[in-house]
User: Which sequence fits this backbone?
C-alpha cells in the first residue's frame, strides 16, 4: 500500500484568512516602497540635494498614502470574512490581488518616466493625454521612451509580488474541512474593517483624511513628491471635480476687495477703466515712449520647450542656442519671463488670448468656457483688419486648437496635413521645424501687400520623442546624460530659427515687421528651485524690430508672464487700444515697477504662485503659503523668509488675481464688448 503523508494541521480558518490579509498588506506596501526607491534611483540629481532625514521621512509619510491604496484593494477580502467559508480556497483572492497589483504596479513603473518628464506624480495630465488621442500618445511613448525595459521591470516586480503572495498563501493554511466559527465572524470582521478604515484614512487625526497636501513636509520639492503615491494622485485626479476646487477661490476675499487689489496689481497710469461696474479690467491703454516708426506686421514665434536654463543669452552658454543668442544682440530680451503653465496648450491661450492658467481651467481650450471671447491678439488685430496666419507642425485638432482660435477670430490655419513632401515627418506629431519655417516663409511672402498681417508660428520638433531628421545640420549634444536628445532637439530648433531669420531678411515685409520669440514652457531639469519648481517656468522672450533696441534697451529685468505678451505687442503699434488682458504693457511701466505674474503647473496639481520682483509666494495644495526670495543668475538661489506682513500682502494679491479672473471667466466677461471694440 502506498504511504500517505499526514495532513498538515493548519490554522483556524478565520485566523488563517485574517493573517493572509494582513500579510498581503505588508507585501504590497513593501513593493510600493521598492517603487519609491526606484524613483530615487532614476532621479539621482534631484535626490542628491535632499537631506537623508527628509528622504527617510518621505518613506514614512509615503507609507500612509500606500496604506490608503492597500486598504481599498483589501475591501472585497474583508467582505468575504462575513461568509461561512471566508476566502474559500483563496483562488479568487489571488486573482483579485494579482490583477490589482498588475494595474497599480504598471502605473508605478510608467510614472518613473512621467516624473522625469513633468516633475509631478501621475495626475490629470496622464488622463488628458489618453482622452485626447490614444494613438498619438501611444506613438509618443513607444518612440520616446525605453518601453521594453520598463515592461520587463514591471513584469519582474509583479512576479516577485505574486509569488510572494502564493508563498504567503501556503504559509497560512486553513484547517481542513472547517469553516468560520459564527461567534467570532462578526467581531473579527469589525476589527479588520476598523484597521482598514484607519489605513484608508491614512491618519488617526480627527477631521479630514490624509490629503495630498500632507505630503509637503520638506523644503525640497522632490522629497514632497516622493512621499506621494501615483495611484492615489491619479485616482484623485479622475474623481475630483476641479470646478469645485476653483469654487473655493471664488470666496477667498470679499468681491470688492479682490477687484480693488487686482486693479492695483495690473493697471498702469496709461490705463483708463471702462464700465468698471461690469468688467474687472476692461480699459483703454494709451502707449507711451513710442517707436519712431511703428511696425506694420507682427510675427509671434512660440518655441516648443525652449527652456531658459539652456539659453546662452541668459548666461547659460552651453552652445545649445547660438542662433537665438545672436538674435538677442539685435533686440530686447526679457530675462525674468515665465510661462503661465507647464504645457503647450496653457502657453497658447495665455500668450495669444492673454488669459491666465487657473485652477480648474488648465484645459481651457477644450472646456465650455473656452468658447468665451477673450481680448487676445486675434480680437484686437481683427478689429484693425489684419490678415492672419497660424502655422503648426502638427494637427490643429490636438487640444482643440483650431476650434479655440477660430472662435477667437483666426481663419487661416496650416497644419500637419497641409504639408507636401516634407523634409522629415515625425510618426507621432508632424513635420519638422524646417518644414514649418519653410512653409511660413512661403506664406508670409505671399501675403497681400494692401493689408498688414499677423502670424503665429509654433514649433514642435523639441517635443518627446524628439524625432529629428537623420542628417542633422547641428552636432548632437553630449555630456548632459538623459537630456542629450532633448537638448539636441532644442539646438536643432534653434538652428532652424536662425535659418528662418537669415532668409526672411531678404523679404520685402521684413523691415516693417515686429518679431516676438518666446518659449511655450520649459522642461524638467536636474534641479528644482522652490516649491513650485520655478525653473520649469523660466523661458526667454525676445522682441525684434526696427528701433526696438534703440528705444527700449537691450535687456528688461521686469518680471513678466505670457499674459503680458499681447498688451506689450499691441502697445508697440503706437495707438490707444481697448482690452481686458490679465497682463500689462511691459514697456509702459514705471521704472520702479518690479513686475508681477501668477503661474500654475499643469494638470490637477493645484499649486499656485505669485512672483513679484525677487519675491516668490507659493501656495501648495492644502498647505499654507511659503514666502521666499530667489535669483536666477549670475548666482542662482532660493531661501524661505519670515515676513508675516509681506506674506499677508502677497497672499491677498494671489487670491484676488485668481478669484477675479475665475469670476470673469464664469460670467463670460473676459473679452471686449462690441460697444467698446476699436
Assistant:
Amino acid at each position: 500500500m502506498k504511504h500517505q503523508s499526514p495532513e498538515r494541521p493548519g490554522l483556524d480558518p478565520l485566523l488563517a484568512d485574517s493573517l493572509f490579509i494582513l500579510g498581503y498588506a505588508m507585501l504590497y506596501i513593501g513593493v510600493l516602497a521598492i517603487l519609491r526607491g526606484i524613483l530615487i534611483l532614476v532621479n539621482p540629481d534631484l535626490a542628491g540635494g535632499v537631506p537623508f532625514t527628509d528622504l527617510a521621512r518621505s518613506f514614512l509619510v509615503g507609507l500612509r498614502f500606500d496604506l490608503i491604496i492597500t486598504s481599498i484593494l483589501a475591501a472585497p477580502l474583508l467582505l468575504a470574512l462575513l461568509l461561512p467559508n471566508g476566502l474559500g480556497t483563496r483562488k479568487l483572492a489571488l486573482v483579485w490581488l494579482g490583477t490589482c497589483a498588475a494595474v497599480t504596479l504598471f502605473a508605478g513603473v510608467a510614472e518613473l518616466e512621467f516624473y522625469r518628464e513633468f516633475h509631478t506624480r501621475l495626475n490629470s495630465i496622464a488622463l488628458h493625454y489618453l482622452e485626447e488621442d490614444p494613438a498619438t500618445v501611444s506613438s509618443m511613448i513607444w518612440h520616446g521612451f525605453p518601453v521594453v525595459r520598463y515592461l520587463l521591470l514591471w513584469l519582474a516586480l509583479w512576479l516577485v509580488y505574486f509569488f510572494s503572495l502564493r508563498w504567503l498563501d501556503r504559509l497560512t493554511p486553513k484547517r481542513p474541512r472547517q469553516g468560520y466559527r459564527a461567534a467570532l465572524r462578526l467581531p473579527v470582521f469589525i476589527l479588520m474593517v476598523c484597521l482598514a478604515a484607519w489605513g484608508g484614512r491614512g491618519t488617526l487625526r480627527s477631521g479630514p483624511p490624509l490629503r495630498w497636501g500632507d505630503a509637503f513636509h520638506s523644503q525640497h520639492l522632490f522629497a514632497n513628491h516622493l512621499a506621494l503615491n501615483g495611484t492615489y494622485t491619479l485616482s484623485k485626479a479622475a474623481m475630483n471635480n476641479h470646478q469645485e476646487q476653483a469654487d473655493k477661490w471664488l470666496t477667498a476675499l470679499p468681491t470688492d476687495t479682490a477687484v480693488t487689489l487686482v486693479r492695483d496689481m495690473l493697471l498702469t497710469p496709461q490705463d483708463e477703466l471702462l464700465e468698471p461696474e461690469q468688467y474687472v479690467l476692461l480699459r483703454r491703454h494709451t502707449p507711451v515712449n513710442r517707436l519712431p516708426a511703428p511696425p506694420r506686421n507682427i510675427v509671434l514665434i512660440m518655441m516648443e520647450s525652449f527652456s531658459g536654463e539652456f539659453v546662452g543669452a541668459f548666461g547659460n552658454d552651453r552652445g545649445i542656442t547660438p542662433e537665438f543668442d545672436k538674435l538677442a544682440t539685435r533686440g530686447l530680451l526679457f530675462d525674468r519671463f515665465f510661462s503661465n503653465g507647464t504645457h503647450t496648450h496653457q502657453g497658447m491661450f495665455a500668450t495669444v488670448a492673454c488669459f491666465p492658467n487657473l485652477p480648474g481651467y488648465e484645459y481651457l481650450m477644450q472646456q465650455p468656457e473656452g468658447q468665451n471671447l477673450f481680448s487676445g491678439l486675434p480680437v484686437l488685430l481683427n478689429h484693425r483688419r489684419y490678415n492672419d496666419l497660424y502655422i503648426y507642425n502638427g494637427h490643429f485638432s490636438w487640444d482643440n486648437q483650431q476650434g479655440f482660435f477660430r472662435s477667437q477670430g483666426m481663419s487661416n490655419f496650416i497644419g500637419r496635413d497641409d504639408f507636401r513632401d516634407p523634409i522629415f515627418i515625425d510618426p507621432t506629431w508632424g513635420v519638422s521645424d524646417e518644414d514649418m519655417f519653410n512653409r511660413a516663409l512661403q506664406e508670409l511672402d505671399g501675403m497681400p501687400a494692401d493689408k498688414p498681417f499677423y502670424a503665429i508660428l509654433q514649433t514642435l520638433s523639441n517635443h518627446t520623442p524628439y524625432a529629428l531628421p537623420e542628417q542633422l545640420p547641428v552636432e548632437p549634444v553630449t555630456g548632459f546624460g538623459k537630456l542629450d536628445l532633448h537638448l539636441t532637439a532644442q539646438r536643432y530648433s534653434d538652428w532652424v530659427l536662425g535659418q528662418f531669420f537669415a532668409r526672411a531678411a531678404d523679404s520685402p515685409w521684413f523691415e516693417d515687421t515686429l518679431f516676438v520669440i518666446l518659449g511655450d514652457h520649459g522642461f524638467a531639469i536636474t534641479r528644482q528651485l522652490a516649491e513650485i519648481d520655478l525653473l520649469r517656468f523660466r523661458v526667454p522672450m525676445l522682441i525684434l524690430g526696427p528701433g526696438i533696441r534703440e528705444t527700449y534697451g537691450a535687456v528688461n529685468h521686469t518680471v513678466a508672464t505670457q499674459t503680458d505678451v499681447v498688451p506689450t505687442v499691441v502697445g508697440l503699434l503706437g495707438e490707444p487700444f481697448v482690452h481686458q488682458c490679465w497682463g500689462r504693457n511691459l514697456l509702459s511701466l514705471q521704472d520702479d515697477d518690479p513686475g508681477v505674474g501668477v503661474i500654475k503647473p499643469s494638470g490637477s496639481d493645484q499649486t499656485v504662485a505669485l512672483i513679484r520682483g525677487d519675491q516668490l509666494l507659493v501656495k501648495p495644495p492644502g498647505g499654507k503659503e511659503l514666502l521666499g526670495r530667489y535669483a536666477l543668475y549670475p548666482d542662482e538661489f532660493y531661501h524661505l523668509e519670515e515676513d508675516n506682513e509681506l506674506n499677508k500682502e502677497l497672499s491677498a494679491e494671489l487670491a484676488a488675481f485668481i478669484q477675479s479672473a475665475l469670476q470673469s471667466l464664469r460670467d463670460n466677461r473676459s473679452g471686449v464688448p462690441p460697444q467698446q471694440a476699436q
Observations:
- The radius of gyration is 28 Å.
- DSSP finds 21 helices and 18 strands in the chain.
